[in-house]
Write a structure and sequence with these properties.
Elements: E1 3-8, H1 15-25, E2 29-31, H2 34-42, H3 51-72, E3 76-80, H4 83-94, H5 100-107, E4 112-116, H6 132-145, E5 152-155, H7 159-171
Parallel strand pairs: 1-3, 1-4, 2-3, 4-5
Helix pairs in contact: 1-7, 3-4, 4-5, 4-6
């Protein structure tokens, strides 16, 4: 059975780049960020009533990738975020903490969570990124939410050093790599 690894981090912490690097390094699959797809498709950020649907959509992407990985014999699926980040955003933007219980329950299916520190340069994209202060606040909410989660590794650094930190964290699971 393939193992799921999720990367969590606020905006501009390098999740997408790192997910792609890990998938390549470990010959695994990557799962994109449903929130980004939503913002591109609708040319706006989601509203409060759309948050729960984003959790369902992210979960569906992950389940489909797990099925593909199992069929093809791949050992790893790397997720560019997780439902927990949607719960954090719902808390941050709408003061709605109702999604945490479900998101934390779903989070148990990850073999490992990589929490990316906000130590990369912030770059706006004109659509879904709000700035350094939002990034710091979201990172704090993630840290608090992850206090009850086992198998969390903090990933920091720049460039190749950040990637090597993440590779070592995945290797720490003790699963044979190709």
């Amino acid at each position: 059975m393939p193992r799921l690894v999720c990367l969590l981090g606020a905006e501009c912490t390098g999740k997408t780049t790192l997910v792609q690097a890990l998938a390549k390094h470990f010959s695994g699959l990557s799962v994109g960020e449903c929130l980004r797809d939503f913002c591109v498709t609708h040319a706006r950020a989601p509203k409060a009533h759309e948050q729960a649907g984003l959790i369902d959509a992210q979960l569906a992407l992950e389940e489909a990738a797990l099925a593909r990985a199992a069929q093809s014999g791949q050992r790893w699926v790397f997720c560019d975020t997780a439902p927990l980040l949607t719960a954090v955003y719902s808390d941050h933007y709408f003061a709605d903490r109702n999604l945490y219980a479900r998101a934390l329950a779903l989070h148990q299916h990850y073999a490992l969570t990589l929490l990316l520190t906000p130590d990369l340069r912030w770059v706006g994209d004109g659509l879904q990124r709000d700035g350094v202060s939002t990034r710091a606040a979201v990172h704090g909410l993630l840290q608090r939410a992850l206090t009850t989660v086992s198998q969390v590794k903090v990933i920091s650094g720049q460039g190749a050093a950040r990637t090597q930190c993440a590779v070592a964290a995945v290797q720490s699971l003790g699963v044979a790599v190709p």
